[in-house]
Amino acid sequence: MATVNFRLRSKANKNVSIKVYLSTGRGNVVELNTGFSINPKDWSKDTDRPKQNSAENKIIFNNLKKLESYIFENLNTDLGKGIVIDSFWLESKINDCFERVQKTDEGIITNYIQNIIDTADTRKVKVKGGYKHGLSLSRKNSYIATKNIILEYQTKTRKQIHFTDINQALIDKFEYWLLKTKNYAVNTSSKHIANIKTVCIEAENKGIQVNSFAKQITIATESDDDRYIQTLSFAELDDIRKADITSEALQNARKWLLIGCEIGQRGGDLLDITPENIRYKGGNMYLDLIQQKTKKPVTIGIIAPHVIDILENSFPYKITTQKLNDHIKKVCETAKINAMTEGKIFDKDIGRKVFKSYEKHKLITTHSFRRSFCTNYYKKIPTPVLMGISGHSKESIFRVYINAPEDTDENADLFMKFYNEIHKDKEPQLKVIKNGTED
């Protein structure tokens, strides 16, 4: 059974350091300074705590009690994670308990990232045409996740990471740990590596000493062959529309699904629309919104009669993305979207996604809506028009998104199609060409 206690190492008639020692059994004892000091005459040998004979000593007594509780709270959790309980661990808990980490030391990468998080709402971000204030919520959360994973890695390696430490060996070991120990997907691991590289470049630009290797960090990504894109075809959407669904929650989810596959927006943007986003012009329905990620204003023309009916007569109520993801799987199951399809599903037992063949309804998420829109209308609608609605900035990215290789005939075919549309109503005219005689 683990024990925490305190003691003095000196009996001198002056203030001496109070030490904490932690025993986890079998001779495993760790002892460190707490950062507090006291005169031995104010120390009780019976309780191994300060005598409460002055206001100052009462404060020290309470701080030691707080530290004892904090150590026990974290000990069981970290033992369960297989974390080594040693002097590095104990030192980090003492610092965490009393928030002693020098936040002004920007040479420590986690401190610098924390500063980014703290100033997320006021940081200048470059956008098309200038700058704006404030990181997006997803970007801020990405930095929080990277900071937390670095802190966990530091606990494993028992070493705090400074910008000057970030060489190839460290990045290789860190990436190996993410992929093999944490079982993260390639893209998840790469996001953390990319955040580290971004932070290093920014820190160096601000005059902080950074290892020269940081700018050479390479970011790995999954190959296109590994991206299994799940979409719903027009025929499958028709099956979903006609499916016999009695549950109010699933009927509501079906409405969001049918709308989502016709407007081509991300899940968060979809669930934020209200009847106020709808307007009419010339008898046509338009949906206006501003995309959260890109901050781009987008207008979508609504043509599908069943979607117009939903928006006008039975607008769906808002739910969380997580609930919608759960409900649409049941909606698709009811509609018999059961074709065996290759994809990845998160396995809670092993803590990572497993790739194999599943019934298709199990693979459908809110992200399928936008991809279905882009895939279904590709080559039926000019690609720049689709990109303007979906928010893709480059055609190359758009093609990867829908898993469509470049078609060199596409522009030529479109030109001929529109040329014929332009000239279809024109009557052919006979033009007389003079041959140089008066006959």
UniProtKB/TrEMBL annotation:
<comment type="similarity">
    <text>Belongs to the 'phage' integrase family.</text>
</comment>
<feature type="domain" description="Tyr recombinase">
    <location>
        <begin position="235"/>
        <end position="404"/>
    </location>
</feature>
<dbReference type="InterPro" id="IPR013762">
    <property type="entry name" value="Integrase-like_cat_sf"/>
</dbReference>
<feature type="domain" description="Phage integrase SAM-like">
    <location>
        <begin position="136"/>
        <end position="213"/>
    </location>
</feature>
<protein>
    <submittedName>
        <fullName>Site-specific integrase</fullName>
    </submittedName>
</protein>
<keyword id="KW-0238">DNA-binding</keyword>
<dbReference type="InterPro" id="IPR050090">
    <property type="entry name" value="Tyrosine_recombinase_XerCD"/>
</dbReference>
<dbReference type="Pfam" id="PF13102">
    <property type="entry name" value="Phage_int_SAM_5"/>
</dbReference>
<dbReference type="InterPro" id="IPR011010">
    <property type="entry name" value="DNA_brk_join_enz"/>
</dbReference>
<dbReference type="GO" id="GO:0003677">
    <property type="term" value="F:DNA binding"/>
</dbReference>
<keyword id="KW-0233">DNA recombination</keyword>
<dbReference type="Pfam" id="PF00589">
    <property type="entry name" value="Phage_integrase"/>
</dbReference>
<dbReference type="InterPro" id="IPR002104">
    <property type="entry name" value="Integrase_catalytic"/>
</dbReference>
<dbReference type="InterPro" id="IPR010998">
    <property type="entry name" value="Integrase_recombinase_N"/>
</dbReference>
<dbReference type="GO" id="GO:0015074">
    <property type="term" value="P:DNA integration"/>
</dbReference>
<dbReference type="GO" id="GO:0006310">
    <property type="term" value="P:DNA recombination"/>
</dbReference>
<dbReference type="InterPro" id="IPR025269">
    <property type="entry name" value="SAM-like_dom"/>
</dbReference>
